[in-house]
TrEMBL record:
Annotated protein name in UniProt: PQQ-dependent sugar dehydrogenase
Residue span, Glucose/Sorbosone dehydrogenase domain: 61-362
Coiled coil: none
UniProt feature, compositional bias: Basic and acidic residues: 361-378
Chain segments annotated as transmembrane: none
One Pfam family in the UniProt entry: GSDH
Origin superkingdom: Bacteria
Bias type Low complexity, positions: 22-41
The organism of origin for this protein: Streptomyces ziwulingensis
């Protein structure tokens, strides 16, 4: 029988965001209205997929977190959580060029320099967006990227786009992405203060939807609010499918990690619910895992499936989609082969870039860690 959840052995979570908590334009209609099936003629992917490991794109990265691909094969930008730097990786040679250090980053615990995204108008404005933990909060800034300047001086002064997101030693969220509507989506954590997730006036434990300038986007579900969905514990994965439907990965505490289809204004239950619930007030996940098998950070869509990078689970999960439901049981790949997996990004067609996370203080680094690996998937 087709199942939307995978029931695995129990265990306490110990990845980013896992474990016990410590003391514009209107949204696209297809993303906003999850359904059990897609448009007429849309076929679900096969129940069983495959992963082929290709070349290693880069090695020797320190606490990598966010990844953004420059257009036209111009390279990959990678953020370092602990050093606060952004580095360009040549896709062919693996050569590294440090763009510069983002000022104001205050790394500690799970905080530091986290997600990266390129402006929807990057070809013209050359703006790189970054999410980071400062001394007082989590915030989003944008910086001008000028590759003509010397290494270490290629980032302009940061312009603060949005601030005031609660920070903590844990649960800082950190993933940012521009959606098909060209709005900026921001995954936040509840910073260890579980009550923030159900408080629609708080920015913690939410997915936010902003204009590129940092204002609440037109069409958001709550008037004059950046909040798009709430009741989250710690969102570190955001991705859209080919029909512009938004999905998010979320760390559980010590019972269930979640993959969710996001509905504007939806309540995803934390802290009253972790995983599936009998309460109709909460949105159920389309897939869930015991926390020692996943602890999902980044997610990406390729070939009609969502791919989740597992930290504590040390594996890549595939969830084939039929609309906003799982078309078959989740399937795991690369278990234990690369250690902790932080970020996965669509590289076009059937390709993915996968970023490991073994130098973040919670992994067991091997020679060459951390690295970016290219995968072919279906």
């Amino acid at each position: 029988m087709v199942a939307a959840a995978l029931l695995l052995t129990a265990g306490c979570s110990a990845g980013d965001g896992g474990g016990p908590a410590a003391a514009g334009s209107a949204p696209p209609s297809r993303a906003s209205s999850p359904s059990s099936s897609g448009p007429a003629g849309e076929r679900p992917p096969p129940a069983k997929g495959s992963v082929e490991v290709g070349r290693t794109v880069a090695t020797g990265l320190k606490s990598p977190w966010g990844l953004a691909a420059l257009p036209g094969g111009g390279g990959l930008l990678v953020s370092s959580r602990d050093t606060g730097t952004i580095t360009r990786i040549d896709e062919k040679s693996g050569r590294k060029t440090v763009l510069g250090e983002v000022p104001g980053v205050s790394p500690a615990g799970e905080g530091g320099l986290l997600g990266l995204a390129l402006s929807p108008g990057f070809a013209a404005d050359r703006m790189v967006y970054a999410y980071f933990t400062s001394a007082s909060d989590n915030r989003v800034v944008r910086m001008l990227y000028d590759p003509k300047k010397p290494s270490g001086e290629q980032l302009g002064a940061p312009d603060t786009v949005f601030k005031g997101i609660p920070k903590g030693f844990v649960h800082n969220g950190g993933r940012i992405a521009f959606g098909p509507d060209k709005m900026l989506y921001v995954g936040t954590g509840e910073s260890g203060e579980t009550g923030l997730s159900q408080d629609k006036e708080s920015l913690g434990g939410k997915i936010l939807r902003l204009t590129p300038e940092g204002e609440p986007a037109r069409g958001n579900p709550f008037p004059d609010s950046p909040v798009y969905s709430y009741g989250h514990r710690n969102v570190q994965g955001l991705a859209w499918d080919s029909e512009e439907r938004l999905f998010a990965a979320e760390f559980g505490q010590d019972t269930w990690d979640e993959l969710n289809a996001i509905t504007p204004g939806g309540n995803y239950g934390w802290p009253e619910a972790e995983g599936r619930s009998d309460d109709d007030a909460f949105q159920d996940p389309l897939a869930q895992w015991k926390t020692d098998e996943a602890s999902p950070s980044g997610i990406a869509e390729a070939g009609g499936s969502l791919w989740l990078a597992g930290l504590r689970g040390e594996r890549l999960w595939r969830v084939p989609l039929k609309g906003t439901k799982a078309a078959a049981d989740p399937q795991s790949f690369l278990a234990g082969e690369y250690g902790r997996l932080r970020t996965v990004v669509a590289a076009g067609g059937d390709k993915l870039w996968l970023v490991t996370s073994n130098t973040d203080g919670r992994g067991e680094p091997k020679r060459g860690d951390d690295r970016i690996v290219e995968l072919t998937v279906k």
